[in-house]
Every structure is written in structure tokens, then in C-alpha cells.
Amino acid sequence: MDASVEPSPRYGQFSAVDGRHYMWRGYGPGRGSNIIAVYDPSTELWSLLPTTGPLPPGEAVGCSVCVGRCLYTFGGSDESSYFNDMSKLDLDTLQWTKVQTSGSQPMKKTGCGLVRVNERTLCCFGGFGIEGTTQPGSTFTKIGYSDGRGWTNKFHFLDTQNGVWSSPELRGERPPCSNFTFTMVDQHRAVLFGGWQSGRSRVNDVYLFNFSTMEVTKVKPVQGEPWPVERSGHAACCLNYGQDHPQLLVYGGLDNGNKPLGDMWILDVDTVQWTEVTPPESMTPRHYHSITATSLGPGLTEVLVFGGLRERLGDHAIAETTILRFEMRLLAEVRHPNLVQFIGAVFDQSPPLIITELLDMNLRQAYEENQLDPGNRLSIFMDIALALNYLHQRYNPIIHRDVSAPNVLLQRMPNHQLKGKVSDLGSANFLQHAHTMGEGAIIYSPPEVIPQAFDPLTPPLRQSVKIDVYSYGIVLCEVTASRFPSAEHYRDMILQVQRQRPAVYELILHCTKREPSHRPSMAQVMVELNKIAPF
Questions:
Q1: Phi-psi region of 32 (alpha: psi -120 to 50; beta: other; left: phi over 0)
Q2: d(CA 328, CA 345)
Q3: What are 43-47's contacts with CB under 8 Å, separation 24+?
């Protein structure tokens, strides 16, 4: 990326995407400029391009969306005024025009949302500003300013072909008023998350808009389930628009203590289940930043993160560009409740940084810190077996090749039990391409792997899923004995398990037989586990 043409630091900027990422205005050195920044995924470069025509009056915290080869922008504010102008930028000529509108005009406001419902219809919702016309079912809450400023949860539709605003009936509970995210996820649905309520508190409810039925459904946080904290000033995008199980990515914002957030979450829109993921270290806590997403081909989505504020107020605007790529095919193809979910990768560093869901601890940490409750070991053994059986039973079986206690992560469930999830599929190969290359710790490796691990010139041996079965047997011994399975201590450990848990001892011996064909399948392992009493 050519750093000489990167956009200047800013926050509260306008942004949109149509295959390329567009960004302009915002508070910072470039405010009031006619320059639009364009990031092209094919060249991985920014361009700073001058626009012509009457510039939109709003400088920051407005909203925008692309429709065809036009970019529409609405509202926003400067240091003293709010606006309700709708402007349009021709993306071929880079010329602005003011859209002449009529009908039920939205009020002058900032912090609102704008989505494209279809090729001719936009929906504008909520915001903070100067009271306008009344709307049945909506509220406007003044907050003491002499000019009547306040919060609204009104919504309006704009027909871009004739410029007419309208306010059709919307059934259901209206969402919060301002500084939320409002994102289309398919041709009929949008998701609104977080934002300010009129009572000056931030929220973390999810609202599902269905524009086919004109209904909105509120989903409250579920106690004990992973869920983001209350926030406003965050950013969001859809990772796989219009596909099965659309995913909403949410990052950053301000919490109710006015602290900038640096967490990242993905919402499965169909199930309304959240997964917390680990962002790159370069993505520091921030708010009033922008996120845009575009498809790079079947199953691959590129996300661009730019700008924002590191502090609640002040001149701490960010000028960093972060590119994330999300492999949605892997998200869809390798999904199991006992596998750590692969989310995506950051490709602007070497090696690429893998992004996965965020969990509490690994299995080795759990037994070393006495975190395993009675009965929990056996349930975790079953969790690992279920995950490996899923990988092995696929049409194209996958060998994990690095099964170990540190690669089993644990999630604390509402009943306080720990759920095991197998992680680090980075060494995994599809069976048809699999050969022994020495991945994983030697102590977990079966005999058929050892020669090639020590001597790279040894011809690689054909692998089978029984490599994972052997490693699984070593994990059984390690966790049952609560000791690291070093070569010098392994014999003592296996004798300890024989004395304390004879049934587990027999299963370990079966899993770690020298001849791969003599080892059980993971399906057979699960049958044996069901015969063992919890411990």
C-alpha cells in the first residue's frame, strides 16, 4: 500500500462501498474538503480524488449508501448546525448534485442510519437533531436546548426516482434513537444494533427489520450467552450479504462508562447468536470509525477499517487502514459446536493473522489451575471426540494433525461447566492431500510421524485420521493424570491412570496402538466414553 496517498486522520467520516471502498469528510485535517478517498481491492491502493458540484453540507456523523453507480449521502452536522439534505455523487464523473425531494421530509439530524432497501428505495431511521414533522408511533425527546434539539426514532423512505419521502406504518417496538449501526443483510432484512436511547443510556439490543412485512423485532440479550456490552459510536458491516446465515461484524464504540471499546463480535442473523472474535493487536480501541465490506469472489469478503477516535473527546483521530479478509466458505463448510470457529485473517502482515472466536482458557491451563470440576473431564473428552469425529466423517475427511491439550479451548457455559472446542486447524489437511510433515508436538505424534519429524529427507508417509486418534489418547492420559506428558514421565502417568481410572487406561491403550489400523475410529471412541463413569 502506498502510504503517500493514504487518507488523513479522521473520525465520524462518511463511508460506503460498491466493490470499492469510499470515504470522505469527517472531523480532522480533511474536514470540508471536496476530496473523496477510494480504496481499490484489486490494487490494494488508496486514491484521493477531487469531486465537483455542490458539496453536501454535513461534515460528519451522517449516513451514506451506494445505489447503482451513485452514492447517496444524508444529514450530518458541523460544529453548529444539523442538516437534512440528500446529495448524490455520480461515481463515474465524481460530480455531486443535491437531490430535490418532497413529501414527509426527515428532520435535520446526525447519528442516523441509511440503508438501501432495493434499487430505488432508501430507508432513513433515527438520529439526533432539530424536531421536524410528527410521525405516528414515533417519539421525539427534547433534552433542554433552546433550539429544540432532541432524539427521535422516526423513519422515512425515499423513492430515489421521484424524490418523494414517505412514512409507511412500521409494526413492532421502535429501536433506540442515535449512534447505532443499521445494516442490510439481504434483500429484505436489516439489523440495527446498539446506540443511544433518549434517556441518555447506551443499549445492546438487536432489532431485526423485515421490509417485506414492515415489521421490526427486538431481541434482548440472553443471560449467560455471549453478548456484546452496551455501546454507541461503533461500526458494523455484513460479511456475506444475501447468503445463507448472513453474518454481521461489529467492532468498537463507547460503553456506558464512556470508555472506547476494542472488542469485535460476529452475529449470526438467523439464529441471533453472537461470537466474540480476537481482533488484530493493531486495531486499538476506538469509536466513530468506519467499516465497509465488499466481496472478492465466492465466499471471500474483504473488510476495510479506518479512522476513529482513541479517546472519548479530543484530537486523537486515527489514520490507520486495516484490511481483514473473511473466508466465508470455511465459516459455512467447517462448523461444529465443538470446533473453535475460524472467522478470517489479516493479510497486511506476514504471516497472516488468523481471527477466531474468543474463548476463556485452554485445557492444559484448566487442569494446571484446578479449574476442572468433578465430571467435567469426561464431558470435555466427549466434546473433543465429537469435534474430531465431525472432521473425520466429512465427505472429504480432514485430519487435524495437531491435537493437544493447549489446542483444546474451553468456554464457560451458563451452568458453569466448561465446554471443549478443538482449535488450531491451521495444520489441518484434507485427507486426499495429506502426507506426514511433522506438525504438532512430538509427544502427541504417532510412530508413523516421528521419522519424518526428525529427518526431513525421510519420504513422507501417507496419513490417515488415525493420527488424530493417537494424539487424542495422549490427551486422555495428560488430562486424567493432570501432568504434562513428557517422555520421561509418560510411563509413570499411564500407570497412575491404570490405578485410578482403569476404563480410561484401556481406552488410552487402544487409541495409542502402534499400528494405525488397530486404533479405533472416533465414533468407536465415543461409544467407549459413554460406558465410563464421570470423574
A1: left
A2: 11
A3: 44/1, 44/323, 45/1, 45/2, 45/5, 46/1, 46/2, 46/5, 46/6, 46/7, 46/321, 47/5
Do residues 321 and 194 both lie within one domain? yes
Predicted local distance difference test score (pLDDT) of residue 338: 93
User: For the chain, what is the domain count?
Assistant: 2
Instruction: Kindly state whether residue 50 falls inside one of the protein's structural domains.
Output: yes
Mean pLDDT, residues 235-244: 88
Tell me: do 321 and 413 sit in the same domain.
no
Share of the chain above pLDDT 90, in %: 59
Nearest to 194 by CA among 84, 274, 282, 77: 274
End position of a domain, from candidates 335, 356, 377: 356
Residue at 534 is within a domain? no
DSSP-derived secondary structure for 399-426: E-----GGGEEEEE-TTS-EEEEE--GG
Strand bridging mode 247-251 / 429-430: unpaired
pLDDT for the residue 225: 84
In what helix (H) or strand (E) does residue 347 lie, and over which residues does it extend? none
| Measured distance CA(155)–CA(65) in Å, rounded | 16
Same-domain status, 487 and 398: yes
This prediction's pTM: 0.74
Q: What is the pLDDT of residue 283?
A: 87
> What is the DSSP code (8-state) at residue 533?
P
Q: Could you say which of 356, 375, 399 is where a domain stops?
A: 356
Q: How many Cα atoms are found within 13 Å in the side-chain-facing hemisphere of 133?
A: 13
Report angle CA 48, 54, 55 to the nearest 5 degrees: 50
Q: From its phi and psi, is residue 494 left (phi > 0), alpha (psi between -120 and 50) or beta?
A: alpha
Which positions ≥6 away from 404 have C-beta within 8 Å? 440, 441, 444, 471, 474, 475
User: How confident is the model at residue 477, as a pLDDT?
Assistant: 96
What pLDDT score was predicted for residue 332?
55
**Residue 326 counted as domain residue:** yes
Look at residue 149 in the predicted model and tell me its pLDDT: 85
Burial of 379 (0-12, 13-18, 19+ CB in 10 A): middle
CATH number of the structural domain spanning residue 488: 1.10.510.10
Range of the domain at 26: 3-356
Instruction: Say how far apart CA 490 and CA 480 lie, in whole Å.
Output: 12
- Note if the bond before 279 is cis, omega within 30 degrees: no
Q: Are 98 and 54 in contact (CB under 8 A)?
A: yes
C-alpha cell at 292: 465497509
Q: Do residues 8 and 135 both lie within one domain? A: yes
Residue 119: CB atoms within 10 Å: 9
Please tell me whether residues 296 and 423 are part of one structural domain: no
Q: Is the pLDDT of residue 348 over 80?
A: no
Q: Is the pLDDT of residue 143 over 90?
A: no
Rounded to an integer, the average pLDDT of 45-65 is 95
